[in-house]
């Protein structure tokens, strides 16, 4: 008799934990959006409740939607383009510097070869 009531109590306890656990889990994207001051946090919150009725089928997309926004860089795409543009210009400068260094090395090798040839010619004339 006691075990029947204990089992019933345990069943109710587990059901309540699962029920509240699902509600807490569905709210994670909204909490992320709220923490990041997302401009669509209300929509994410409502979509989280809708995801309860779709058995959380859209929940991963809500998570992605909430994590894409950052207050300091927005969606991040514009800054990424700027960074790529800056990297491209830095790469062009480095290529120009490498070309200048190649030319300088070629010039110095030629100058060294001329000096060697002159030294060899002087030695040949001395003999």
TrEMBL record:
<feature type="transmembrane region" description="Helical">
    <location>
        <begin position="46"/>
        <end position="66"/>
    </location>
</feature>
<protein>
    <submittedName>
        <fullName>DUF3302 domain-containing protein</fullName>
    </submittedName>
</protein>
<feature type="coiled-coil region">
    <location>
        <begin position="77"/>
        <end position="111"/>
    </location>
</feature>
<feature type="transmembrane region" description="Helical">
    <location>
        <begin position="6"/>
        <end position="25"/>
    </location>
</feature>
<dbReference type="Pfam" id="PF11742">
    <property type="entry name" value="DUF3302"/>
</dbReference>
<keyword id="KW-1133">Transmembrane helix</keyword>
<keyword id="KW-0175">Coiled coil</keyword>
<keyword id="KW-0812">Transmembrane</keyword>
<dbReference type="InterPro" id="IPR011223">
    <property type="entry name" value="UCP028770"/>
</dbReference>
<keyword id="KW-0472">Membrane</keyword>
């Amino acid at each position: 008799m006691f075990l029947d009531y204990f089992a019933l109590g345990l069943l109710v306890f587990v059901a309540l934990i699962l029920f509240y656990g699902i509600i807490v889990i569905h709210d994670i994207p909204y909490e992320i959006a709220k923490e990041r001051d997302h401009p669509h946090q209300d929509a994410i919150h409502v979509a989280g409740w809708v995801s309860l009725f779709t058995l959380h089928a859209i929940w991963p997309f809500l998570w992605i939607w909430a994590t894409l926004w950052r207050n300091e860089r927005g969606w991040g795409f514009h800054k990424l383009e700027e960074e790529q543009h800056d990297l491209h210009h830095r790469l062009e400068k480095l290529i120009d510097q490498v070309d200048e260094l190649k030319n300088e090395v070629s010039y110095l090798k030629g100058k060294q070869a001329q000096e060697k040839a002159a030294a060899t010619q002087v030695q040949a004339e001395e003999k």
